[in-house]
Amino acid sequence: MEFSVSIRNLVHNYGKTKALRGIDLDLPSNCTIGLIGPDGVGKSTLLSLIVGVKKIQNGSVQVLGRDISKGSVRDELSHDIAFMPQGLGHNLYPTLSIYENIDFHARLYGLRGKYKHQRIVQLMQATNLASFSDRPAGKLSGGMKQKLSLCCALVHSPKLLVLDEPTTGVDPLSRQQFWELVENIRSNSGDMTVLVSTAYIDEAEQFEYLVAMDDGQVLVAEKTADVLADGGYSTLEEKYISLLPPEKQTNPDRIQKSPLQIDLKEPLVMEAKDLTKKFGNFTAVNDVDFEIHKGEIFGFLGANGCGKSTTMKMLTGLVEPTSGTAYLLGHEIDPNDISTRKRVGYMSQSFSLYEELTVHENLLLHARLYEMGSKEGKKAIEQALRDYQLSEVANTKPSDLPLGIRQRLQLAAAILHSPDVLILDEPTSGVDPAARDMFWEQLIHLSRDKQMTIFVSTHFMNEAERCDRISLMNQGEVLAMGTPQELIDSKGAENLEQAFIQYLIEAQASNEKDSVAHSEDFEMIAAPEKPKKSFNPYGAFSLIQTFAIREGKELLRDKIRLFFAVFGPIFLMVGASLGISFDIHDIKFSVLDQDRTTESRALVERFEGSPYFINIPEISNISQVQEVIKAGKARLVINISEGFGQQLLRGERPEINFVIDGAVPFFASNIRGYIEGILNDYVQERLSTLPIDLSLPFNIEPRYVYNQDFKSIYSITPGMIMMALMMVPAVMTALGVVREKEIGSIMNLYGSPASKLEFLIGKQLPYVTVSFVSFFVMVALAYFVLGVPIRGNLFAMALGALLMIFASTSFGLLVSCFMSSQVAAIFATAILGLIPSLNYSGLLFPVSNLTGAAAIVARAFPTSWYQLISIGAFTKGLSFSHFILPYLALMGFTTVYLTVASLFLKKQEK
């Protein structure tokens, strides 16, 4: 038998957590294979290792007969493997249209010209996306994103299609259409193997082959029909539960709830009237109405993004409604109504307790937040630990607990203060069936025995059937409301899922613009024959161009990023050039003239006539000298002692006391220089009045070669252009790469034939282009607005700027390889770039004056080299021949940064 995947002794760990425990597995070819199990059992890890996006730690994996651990093999097999990662639309780019997303993936795998266009059109027609080809992926519904992701995965006609939980969180109709579409495409392709992981165990019944997993191990790997026949189980979920260890097994049939007895005289616990919430132009919840009675379990059933979580947050006061009213426990929702909020327990969709605290400490914190007394809190914590079987893990941190126990901990915390209302937002998402059943046993106990009103959202049909009443939601609107059986009967359906599908079909039919064809309309046209002489994807920088075009489109459509990329350097240059000045004028000084002679007045007049000083009223006694300096009224006080004039006329050396404000040493040093200059002139003038000739045989007159006006703006502006070209492009490029890591689209690199260097250069080029345009705008503003002359060769300076931008963007790419969040990327790039750019570039201190480590740092960073070009072209009149060494240095920095970045950027996860 030919196997598509063959695995031997596969082990994979995340620190101390064992994800896969010595798996041996053979998967057949040319069939559909289902991989089932709850979150955390190792499904995603196994699939990632099979497609080569994770690095194999121990064991071997053969895919399509070849060893996937070898880099060269992975690149070759990438044309035969397609991977759709977990998470809705993680292989998509939100600002790109449907056509552009598929086109990017097609280019990534070397499709070009007429064949590429035909393939894209056929896939869009098969999925009924052709009429929405210009719509951005970020504005698609969950079902449409699902189909677009599939188109991107199928565009290069793979032999092995791997789908990691592709239907999690989408509505039943979209799930049904998706699987019909996959089967239609597979039957038309002839030799495609489809490997799918799913959290919906009932979905796996349609697959030909089944692999069940738990705790990193394979429980069974056989034909699905054989698995169901073994033991005579009616459903796959029952069979899966029977395969689990005894401590994880449970019987769903034992979960019984008594009929709800509603007392109509009791006031409503929760009520919503025309409840609406809009985020900008997007309506998340639209005119929702419902009433919930005491002790009732009321369910919200719908896909991710349908408005369930937003509605719940409005009911808890976490989100303010745009319009409509909501009542909780007889009071209109008010975020400041603390007394009402204390009567509510809330459990969010994601884990919201503190990972740093133990189970007991989390419960203790929760008790204190709700102002429970020490005895009351202690008793409630002990009771919660017993009821929810948490006693044995009381001193364990949540990060070390399985998902099911973490969910029990959250529920224990939510009901610790005995609330009247319990709001649960998808509390069992990703939990195994046994843990889910145990969770629902607790909910039924709280509802029936403690008369607690429970409002729960879910996208599991079997959970919805356990609610007293449910509300079916789609795109922010309530489609129907009633008991599960009432909804089933209203559509004459066999079960709740079929009833929900009928409601969705009716809702979509009423909105033709967003309707999608029923699966019967799907028809996969055979792919056109590939041209014999296709374009070589590895030649003429085609993959670099592919990444550059996509990044450029994203940048142009992201107005905020584009604004900072273009105008960030401009604002930095203009603001800093106008705000930073080393020109010291109008220094306030005061005089304590105790001599009052012609000679003393002549000296004071010298200071008054200087453009650097401004005289303020004189002081009258010595005690005022320190007061004037301390108060900041003057930066200089001239104390002329009594007898100054007589001593000067007698040819003696009279003393003058100059008191300088030394709080800022730079200014104090300049003031001292000004004083020495004025005294020099004063002495020369006094000597010229004597009857003897004391003049020198030569005159010394200082002249500034390049900056005759001695204006600091002529040096600050070129320096700020250097700073702008270093900081902004580096930060923007680092964000561009880290952003892909955060949204998950970096998977497109992991599974593609593109090299890391091609990816990095492609990401870099759009930011180089934008920054180069920004450079010319800065030069124009410097010349026409700030009045800074360009005495050298503009084109020589532009070439230097281009090389500097390549160096700074390469630096940003290097930093991004070590960062996993955009916030960290901003801070790391800014700090690592700012210090050497400011202190060691020649902006504040000449590089030639630096010694030791400071001199090494200066020469080991590109800013000091570009500063030579910027200053030289602006003020010194230099041209190409003078910049040969800086040009070579900047090219060297680009080469080194890109090379190191390509070494540290991983094309496989650990």
From TrEMBL:
Membrane topology field: Multi-pass membrane protein
Pfam family for this entry, one: ABC2_membrane_3
Any GO MF annotation of the entry: ATP binding
Domain ABC transmembrane type-2: 672-908
TM region(s), chain numbering: 562-582, 713-738, 765-788, 794-816, 823-840, 884-905
Annotated compartments: Membrane
Residue span, ABC transporter domain: 5-240, 270-500
The keyword ATP-binding appears for this protein: yes
PROSITE patterns membership: ABC_TM2, ABC_TRANSPORTER_1, ABC_TRANSPORTER_2
SUPFAM superfamilies reported for this sequence: P-loop containing nucleoside triphosphate hydrolases (SSF52540)
GO cellular component term of the entry, any: membrane
Keywords: ATP-binding, Cell membrane, Membrane, Nucleotide-binding, Transmembrane, Transmembrane helix
Main location: membrane
Name of the protein in its database record: ABC-type multidrug transport system, permease component
Organism: Taylorella asinigenitalis (strain MCE3)
